[in-house]
Amino acid sequence: MKICPGPKINIGLQVKAKRPDGYHELETLFVPCDAFSDVLELEEAPALQVEIPGADWPVEEDLTVRAWQLLHDEFGIPPVRIYLEKHIPVGAGLGGGSSDAAAALKLLNGLFSLGLSDAALARRAALLGSDCAFFIYGTPMLGTGRGEVLEPFPIDLSGYRIVVEMPQGERVSTREAYAGIVPTVPKLLLREALLSPVAAWKDCVYNDFEATVFPAHPRIAALKAEMYARGAVYAAMSGSGAAVFGLFDIKGENIQQATGACRFATLSG
């Protein structure tokens, strides 16, 4: 069985408080992107096999393997062969690993006829990562808690083109992004700020990680500024970085790629 997991962007990301369990209380809007994707294939095998061409991490620790292990421990599903072809960059704040894990749960659910609903899959996905549950649904969702508490959020970006880029060679780990974060009580809750016209988001919809990431990665900050210089109505870093996205009004726009940036997606919302 084969599936093509896609990434997400975060429109706004508020870090509100440090939780007793060590995580942070967040509020963010997850929006799926489908113009580019990884490729994941799963099939039953005599023993667990994992192939991830070009991986620079232990493949046996990949989130797709953890997804299989989770269902193996609970339902006793047999070993599988996992083939994962990565196109979503690592350390970009686009949720590639989480998307792959959610896709693996979906494939395993179908391959072994487990009969799990999306809600049941989402509960299990949340055990693998804070944003994994979102990828089960693949529709705009407001995430709270550590990102796993989800509610549908009506948003219409059909009049905008979403451009996602990342400075060549940049990579930001989640650990690095959280290291200097100082939780604050926002003046305006994200869900309220998002009700403003998109043209007003520049002044009220923020990603709190930019304050810690931009000083250490000035090329990411420069890319955001370039997005605005090129005509973006709204631009921000996605998640904990290093990818930046811009929303461009489709009417009469002419999007130019920034110098020294790698474009990963250009899609209509």
What does this entry look like structurally?
- This protein has two domains: 151 residues, Ribosomal Protein S5, domain 2 (2-Layer Sandwich); 109 residues, GHMP kinase, C-terminal domain (Alpha-Beta Plaits, 2-Layer Sandwich).
- Helix content is 27%, strand content 26%.
- It is built from eight helices and twelve strands.
- Strands 1-4-6-5 form a four-stranded mixed beta sheet, with helices on one face.
- A hairpin with a 6-residue loop joins β10 and β11.
- The C terminus is likely disordered.
Write out key terms for the chains shown:
8 helices; four-stranded mixed sheet; Ribosomal Protein S5, domain 2; alpha+beta; Alpha-Beta Plaits; four-stranded antiparallel sheet; 269 residues
What is the topology?
Blueprint: E1 2-3, E2 8-18, E3 24-32, E4 39-44, E5 49-51, H1 63-75, E6 80-85, H2 96-111, H3 118-125, H4 132-137, E7 141-144, E8 149-152, E9 160-167, H5 174-179, H6 190-193, H7 210-216, H8 218-229, E10 234-237, E11 244-249, E12 261-268
Parallel strand pairs: 5-6
Antiparallel strand pairs: 1-4, 2-3, 3-7, 4-6, 7-8, 9-11, 9-12, 10-11
Helix pairs in contact: 1-2, 7-8
